[in-house]
Design goal:
single chain, 314 residues, TIM Barrel, 11 helices, alpha/beta, seven-stranded parallel β-sheet, two-stranded antiparallel sheet
Amino acid sequence: MNYFTNEKHYNTLNNYYKAKYKTKIMKIALNGDFSCPNRDGVFSYEGCIFCSEKGSGDFAGKKENSLKEQFFNIKALMNKKWKNGKYIAYFQANTNTYGPIEKLKKLYYEALSLDKDIIGLNIGTRPDCFSPKIYDLLSEINQITDLTIELGLQSIKSDTLKLINRGHDLETFTNAVNELRKRNIDVVVHIINGLPYETDSDMLNTINYLNKLDIQGLKIHMLYILKNTTLENFYAKNKFHILSLEEYVKITTLQLRNLRENIIIHRITGDPPKALLITPSWTLKKFIVSNEIDKLMRKENFYQGDLYKENKNE
């Protein structure tokens, strides 16, 4: 099933939510004060080369506040724009399955109890931060709410994974997807376009690989360079090519056309913190980016999955 419209020729998350829940759905990004094994020394102290000192989840609540304070502070801001709707509690910052099972269980269940209008839980994490007990806990939670696990991948290219210091390989990612799907847990995958030295073919290869997996959603980010990151130093020394807006629109549209029609697009570009951004400046204009993709797809009558179908039928 697809949720295309005259304006959007791909499956947007907003249209999917409207069809499923018949109301506005708002994600509340929470900070459970999790760490990351790629930053605390278990795998590495450096983290991925694009991570800021804050780590991921710069737009989540403040870890100093309780989950309740975080939730209602953000809810109040959202309610200024949307008066009615339901909510998804979203553990966004850092690696949210990385911790003692007791902590995970406490935080997940607490988040679900914060408001009667919470209809789901999203958990962002790494594919190498699971255990049998964690899978069991997630399976348990999936029985009582709409659970989605967001997995960082970024690229399937092994040289790229090493260069950006991901700390895991493609097999680990694939195994995590398969284990989650055995338990009927929805999976959303994060990828990044414009990683150092990747070609259009590399970026399309990532999409073609994901088509073979039972994933339900995709977040497409653009690589941007932030202050105080390893990537800042790497870029200063190597000056690798940064995608222009036009190049990003072209490759992302091509990825959408090669992507299975039933995969929901949760994000179409990155969302950098303005104060830390070095380049490219166009990534600050996320609505312009999505509008340019929409314009191209409408002009050329492109749709998500049209090339996937053609290739499958050849």
